[in-house]
Structures are given as C-alpha cells and as structure tokens.
Design goal:
The chain is of the alpha+beta class and 592 residues long. A hairpin with a 3-residue loop joins β20 and β21. The longest helix has 25 residues, at 268-292.
Length: 592
C-alpha cells in the first residue's frame, strides 16, 4: 500500500497470504475511506465519437431510484474536474488534405509529447486541468454536462444532421474506421445529443435549476458564441457550419494549456434560452435526416469536397500539413449517402420521445429490408455494403455476415430490441425476443451454452452455411447491459420510483406477455438486489394491450417479519422509502 493499488489486489493479497482480518469487505471499505482515489489514464489512439453516449443512461438509471435527488445530483457537488490529456485534435487547416487528387481529412490527432514530458504532468497518470494560479478547475455536474452538450453541438455536420468524426475515430461500429477520412458524420450521436439537450432543458424549465448558475469563463464564452451563431446564421448553409467549427477550434486552443480559473454567472433563464434553440436546431436536423432515409433513420453520411483550393504560403508554395500532404481550404461540400445501418434506428427508438407512428413504420420497413435476416429472424448490423468503397473502413474487407459486417452483433441488436420496448411496441418486442435472444436459440445452432452471450452471431449473409446462427467470441459485451435494461423495463414498465406532488412513490406497470408466466401464473425477478418481486397473474393474460390485466394489490413482506397490503399499483411515500432502503425483502403484485 506504499504505492497505488486496486481493491482487487488487496483482496488477492489477503487470500494468497491467509491473512486474518475479519470481514474482508468491511476491511476494504474502511481502507478505501482512508485512501485517495487516482484515475489513471494516458492518451493512446484517439477519440471515438460515441464514448460519451452512455452518460445519460447513467443519469437516468440513478434518477429512476432517486428522483427526489435531481437537484442534488446536478448542483450538490462542485468538485467535478476536467481531465487534462496530452492528446489534441488538430484544426481543419491541418487536417484537410489533398491525397491522390482527392480531398480527405487525415492526421486529426496530435500526441503532444512535450506536454507529456513537462514538469508536473504525470504521463499515464492523473492530470486535471488547472487555472492560471495552479488550482484545479472544478464545477458541478450541470457544468460538466453543459460543457459536453455545447461542444457536441459544435460538431454538427455541414447540413446540421450528423455529428462529425473529426477526432479521427468512428463511433460504435469500430470497423467503419475510414469514415473520419471521408468527412463522415453519424446520426447516432446526434440523437444522443437531442436526448442530452432535452434533459438539460427540462431541468432548467422545471425549476430543478434556477437563479444564477456559476460556470468557468471559457464555458460561458462558448455558450455566448453559440447564441451569436444561431442568431446570425440559424442552422442553414455553410456559413453556420464554418462559424461553429471556428468557434470550437478557438475554444480548444484556448483551454489546451489550461484555463484562466475565472468564473462568471448566467441565469437559468438565459441558459435555457440558448439550449432550447440548440435543441430545435438538432431536431430540425433529425427530421431532415429522417426524410432522407425514406422511412429508416440513417446512421452515417459522408461528404465530398466539391469546391476547394490548395493552401499556399506567401511565396505561392503549397503548404504541407503535419501529415505531410498539401493542405486545402474547402469551400463547398456535397453529401454522399451510406447504406442503412441498424444503429441509427436503434438510437432513434431509445432516444426520441414520441414519434410512435414513425417508429412503428420504421420497424416495419426494417423487417422488409436487408437488415432483417429472414432465415435467422434476427437483426444485422446493416444490409449489404458491397456498393461502398474500401475507403469506408476495414468493415468492407470482412466476409459478409462476419464481425461488424452484416452480422448479428448482439450489443446493437439488443439495443434495437430495448428500443422497441421503450417505444411501447410490446407485441413487436416479444415477437422479436423469442427469435433473437440467446436463451431462446437452439444450442445446436448457437454452438455454445445459451447461458452466455457472444460478441456476434454469423448471419445468413455469410457464404458458409455451417456457421449461420453460430455465436463467436463469448464475452460480457454491451448486450449484457442492454439485457438488464430490458429485464427492468419488462417488470417495471414506465414505473419505478417517481415523485408525485413532491412525495416519493413506487409505481408498478409490468409489461409482460401471458406466456412468460409459469404454470402457477407467476413471474419474478430480484429488484435492487435485495427484494424478490413476484407478479401473480392467475389468468396468464398480457399486462399490456387489449384485454390486459393490471396490478390491483401489492403485498409487502418486511425484513423484520411484518406484512402489509397496499391497494392499487402505487406504493405511498413510507413504503417506497422502505423499499429503497432495503427494508422490504419480498413483494407480490396481484394482477387481475
């Protein structure tokens, strides 16, 4: 313990040496209370465009249990910091290049070895952005989320639809790694931005955040700059895009070596006004993309430089970028379509509020498209991509139906299924579930235990029929998280902990099909790791749709042996508090 350690290392040492310390969990807990946390990271490959997407999942999951702590979550702590990295994204003047008579975006990333070697900078260790006085810059979670939202808004592409991949890496589909060079953009991240902006605007509008908000001066300048761009250009045309890209480049250059340490205030009303304009602009871009997709939300766009000129120095010589190729100034871009991928629709189902009819129509269109594997009755990462060039990424070099190319990648397929459930399409969800979830697959086809997930399942697009439906690379992938989210949604529906007239409540709206109940008419799961929740449905009818059953009574069994019965589907404040505190060990919901 004289050097950095992990809790796992301590537990291993205790076990290996046969040390006696009583309750090892209590020991480690006390030890961590005495230790200083160090978040160690070092710049390696670059900035994937999707790595921020899961923030709202964490926020929403927290608020499903603690809806009464929203203000405390956003404003209660002021010690949120900004990680200081040796990595840097170069400006357009250094990345827009002429390569084989084609304009591309290459060399986006700069690994600043000088910064990494500077005194006081811990290479591969913990580094936080500091102010001019050497103090670490801190803010609230609201400040961090605002910083994220404003930066991502400035990454909207030339037509205000997809989010640019100018960090040199693609998004979730890692094998589409050629997209950044083709000025690629992704609707998946735009849909997540809409979700983030919706949360922030709701928090500012419902009184969770009110009065004056204190923010670092650089973030306030970013907020004011975006307001000015929207006022002058709206979201139309190249002028808006160029102004936004220039603002983000100035911002990055200004904070890379550190921040001023100065703070300022804006009222919640002022911030709300700017974010509402941003949200409207983002939704306009989403609507435009939807129309272009002809009923299926696109995932990717690429852009081609239609008008450009070579950058030259004062003596008329071509300027070379750090990548070693001639730099260019692009005056006009032309969008190029990319075949549909499943990620765009999956994000739309999960992120966009409302639009139920559009989502239902999109699901029907996908079932008719090449993204649906009719042989396996599963959903592939995309339809055929034979028509796109090898420049789009290594995905084009894979065999169809293998890895990220037209296979059933469980993480994304499960994300799509969860989207169906969130969108209220329970019938469609359960129809797809019985064909697509691993536990329902024939083991002889899957080729391994159906109690474990795989990274991907080879689809019928693969030329080798013997591998169709077989799972490859067993792992705890993102499909595990998506499955847990489905499970919770199935048993709680749109319920869970909530506030009603300022009081905590727990609402139970299960979305379960009749066939999922056992011979005794019961279906159960463990809630919050300590309470067994049993839904008792004697008639084994669906809990959704026509002729459905609803929760009529909830029986509570406390850890101290007490029993209590509550009429209806909602636990009042006292019982909801007891459930959240772990004092209720068993609940039985009677449906009729």
């Amino acid at each position: 313990m004289r050097k950095p350690f992990t809790p796992g290392q301590i537990c291993t040492a205790i076990a290996e040496h046969g040390l006696v310390c009583g309750d090892s969990r209590a020991f480690v807990s006390k030890l961590l209370g005495l230790a200083d946390e160090r978040l160690e990271a070092g710049f390696c490959e670059g900035y994937w465009s999707d790595h921020w997407d899961y923030l709202m999942d964490l926020v929403e999951d927290y608020l499903r249990i603690y809806p009464d702590r929203k203000r405390r979550l956003l404003l209660g702590r002021t010690d949120y910091r900004f990680y200081d990295s040796a990595g840097q994204v170069r400006p357009r003047s250094e990345t827009y290049v002429l390569s084989s008579r084609r304009v591309r975006q290459y060399g986006s990333l700069y690994h600043n070895r000088e910064k990494e070697a500077a005194e006081g900078f811990a290479a591969g260790g913990t580094n936080w952005v500091k102010g001019a006085d050497g103090a670490v810059i801190t803010t609230t979670l609201l400040g961090k989320m605002l910083t994220l939202a404003l930066n991502k808004f400035l990454l909207l592409d030339q037509e205000g639809m997809g989010m640019e991949m100018e960090g040199g890496k693609p998004g979730w589909n890692d094998a589409m790694n050629g997209l950044p060079g083709l000025f690629g953009s992704s609707m998946a991240e735009t849909l997540e931005l809409d979700r983030l902006l919706s949360f922030l605007t709701a928090s500012l509008a419902d009184g969770t955040v009110e009065g004056e908000v204190s923010l670092p001066a650089e973030i306030l300048a970013l907020l004011d700059g975006i307001a000015g761009i929207l006022e002058e250009h709206g979201m139309d045309g190249a002028a808006r895009w160029d102004a936004a890209a220039s603002l983000r480049e100035r911002y990055r250059a200004g904070v890379y070596a550190g921040m001023s340490g100065e703070t300022g205030q804006r009222s919640a009303v002022q911030i709300l006004s700017v974010l509402e304009e941003c949200g409207q602009a983002v939704r306009t871009g989403i609507e435009n993309a939807w129309r272009l997709g002809n009923g299926i939300m696109p995932t990717y766009f690429t852009y081609e430089a239609a008008e450009y000129e070579t950058r030259r120095d004062a003596e008329g010589r071509e300027e070379l970028t750090p990548y070693g190729l001639p730099g260019v100034l692009v005056k006009k871009f032309v969008r190029r379509a990319v075949p549909p991928f499943l990620e765009g629709p999956a994000r739309m189902l999960s992120c966009m509020e409302g639009c139920e009819l559009q989502k239902k129509q999109m699901h029907d269109r996908i079932r008719e498209s090449d993204m649906y594997d009719r042989k396996l009755k599963m959903y592939k990462t995309s339809g055929s991509i034979e028509e796109i060039s090898m420049e789009h990424g290594r995905v084009r070099a894979f065999t169809p139906g293998w890895l990220e190319r037209e296979s059933v990648f469980l993480h994304m397929e499960y994300k799509y299924l969860l989207g169906l459930l969130r969108s209220g399409m329970a019938e469609e969800f359960y129809e797809a579930m019985r064909d697509a979830l691993v536990p329902f697959l024939p083991p002889e086809m899957y080729g391994r235990s159906t109690l474990e997930n795989s990274s991907f399942i080879a689809s019928s697009a693969n030329p080798d029929e013997k591998v169709h439906g077989r799972g490859f690379v067993a792992r705890l992938s993102g499909s595990t998280t998506e499955m847990l989210s489905m499970w919770i949604r199935m048993f709680l529906g749109d319920g869970g902990f909530c506030l009603e007239d300022g009081e905590l409540r727990f609402v139970l709206h299960p979305v379960l099909p009749g066939w999922l109940f056992d011979g005794n008419g019961e279906a159960a799961f463990t809630l919050m790791s300590c309470c067994r929740l049993t839904c008792r449905n004697a008639e084994r009818r669906n809990t959704y749709g026509g002729n459905s059953v609803q929760v009529k009574e909830i029986a509570l069994h406390y850890a101290d042996g007490r029993e209590e019965h509550v009429a209806g589907d909602t636990l009042p404040a006292a019982q909801a508090q007891a459930l959240r505190a772990g004092r209720i060990c068993d609940m039985t919901a009677v449906l009729a």
